[in-house]
Automatic annotation (TrEMBL):
Keyword Signal: yes
Domain of life: Bacteria
Signal peptide: 1-29
Domain Type 9 secretion system plug protein N-terminal intervals: 45-170
Pfam families the record matches: T9SS_plug_1st
Name by which UniProt lists this protein: DUF5103 domain-containing protein
UniProt keyword list: Signal
InterPro entries associated with the record: T9SS_Plug_N (IPR031345)
Length: 456
């Protein structure tokens, strides 16, 4: 009898182990059509914001077992409430699915649902605003590293509507970095270089050249990230990532600012402001190219945007408010209106290549809907975007053929012709240090450092 029981126990353990290692393969097969980048897949979803809870302008980075949380919010132009679900996919440092099963990195449920939503109030364009804060009691994270947050319409869980990258770190490595002028002569006036020093005293690193890697991103952009950086110098209890020209970025130019927090009196100069059935429409005063070799510094959000409104709603004691309506619904998340914004870029002559709007609101991608169109009547490029009231950053970038063998999305466009690139430009940088011990099954994120090009 004991022998039979032992055989049964062994069989059950074998089945459990088989399922444990089969889950990642099944998950990967189910998500073959996913883009492992920040992306919105459907037209009815607008204004996707993802940041630290309580810090609107921040990296989606939290500490393992820490108190920090992340907040995802978006507006849905559908008339009816949808049952949106979400899940996490654990990734390696290259943003490919890791070998961990959900049971190994998620201490809660494998699928969660959006329960926090409400309808817009007193807006020309009706929408439903959804919010999610995690980790929460249903979805908890138990391993560091890279993650992809995937949001599905519950009507069809095979089709994603939103994906967003985020990181979870365990503070084992002390990371210091500096942003400096490049050592390569051809890049001195157009680029910025990042050097890193990583303390490894709290880690048992046997082979740093094999186990440690660094990634550096600029302004929360992944399209131009420098990844897979190998230590260049080994020291006692520390390693350095110090290369000439390898960890360098185009400085770019300060982002252009668009201030439409007020629909009655926008701070950005407009040619026209009209009131339409499904929102407001604005046309800006024409922008002009800045690629003239002269840098002009001013404050921006480094490509990000923040939603806000200046106008205060006139509150009336309606039947709705008498029944217990919360005043939280009167903030900009539910009362911000939408604007069909027309951008104008006066170049006088048409270029032999395409121009795109680019920034946080385009998800730092060259998207067809943000392609500028040449207007012969005004000798300028014109483009449109549907934007919620707020303060936006944007660039005009020019499409180009990437160098042979390049896989970087940022190599598909250039700052030449319109914006220019300067070493003086103020930019944010985030360094990520990954550690996969010999025999380890996933890339642990063991240290980070946030830097600014204007701060020594």
């Amino acid at each position: 009898m004991n022998l039979t029981f032992s055989k049964l126990t062994l069989h059950l353990r074998s089945v459990a182990m088989l399922l444990l290692f089969a889950i990642p393969a099944l998950t990967q097969a189910q998500d073959e059509d996913l883009l492992f980048i920040d992306n919105t897949y459907v037209d009815n979803i607008k204004t996707v914001r993802f940041h630290l809870d309580g810090v609107l302008h921040s990296y989606p980075l939290i500490e393992l077992n820490g108190s920090g949380k992340l907040r995802l919010s978006f507006d849905d132009f559908n008339d009816e409430v949808r049952r949106y679900s979400y899940k996490f996919i654990h990734c390696d440092q290259d943003w490919q699915p890791s070998s961990l099963s959900p049971l190994e990195f998620n201490a809660g449920n494998t699928i969660g649902y959006f329960d926090d939503y409400d309808f817009s109030i007193r807006t020309l364009r009706d929408y439903i605003h959804y919010e999610l804060v995690f980790p929460n009691r249903d979805m908890q994270i138990s391993a560091s590293g890279n993650y992809l947050l995937v949001v599905y319409d519950d009507e069809d869980e095979t089709i994603p509507v939103i994906t967003r990258r985020f990181m979870v770190q365990e503070k084992l490595a002390g990371v210091t970095g500096r942003v400096m002028r490049p050592s390569i002569v051809d890049q001195i006036h157009t680029h910025q270089e990042v050097d890193l020093t990583v303390g490894t005293k709290q880690m048992q690193v046997r082979n740093p050249l094999r186990e440690l890697r660094a990634t550096v991103i600029q302004n929360n952009r992944w399209d131009n990230a420098v990844t897979g950086i190998v230590p260049s110098l080994l020291q006692n209890d520390a390693v350095r990532f110090d290369y000439q020209g390898q960890v360098s970025f185009f400085g770019g130019n300060e982002y252009r600012n668009l201030d439409i927090r007020s629909v009655r009196a926008p701070r950005t100069e407009m040619v026209s402001v009209t009131n339409e059935e499904d929102g407001y429409a604005m046309m800006m005063q024409a922008d002009r190219p800045r690629d003239n070799g002269t840098y002009l510094g001013y404050i921006d959000f480094n490509g990000d945007y923040i939603n806000d409104r200046f106008e205060e709603l006139t509150l009336q004691l309606t039947q709705e408010s008498q029944s217990g309506e919360t005043f939280d619904r009167f903030d900009y998340n539910y009362s911000g209106d939408y604007v069909r914004m027309t951008f104008v870029l006066a170049t006088n002559t048409k270029l032999d290549r395409d121009i795109y709007l680019f920034g946080g609101f385009t998800e730092n991608q060259l998207k067809p809907e943000y392609k500028m169109v040449w207007n012969t009547q005004i000798s300028a490029y014109v483009g449109q975007a549907v934007l919620k009231q707020g303060f936006y950053n944007y660039h005009y970038v020019v499409e180009q053929n990437p160098p042979p063998g390049s896989t970087k999305a940022s190599d598909r466009f250039t700052y030449d012709y319109i914006e220019g690139s300067f070493d003086e430009t103020e930019n944010d940088y985030l360094a990520l240090i990954y550690w996969r011990p010999i025999g380890g099954r996933y890339d642990r994120l063991v240290g980070t450092s946030q830097m600014n090009s204007n701060v020594d």
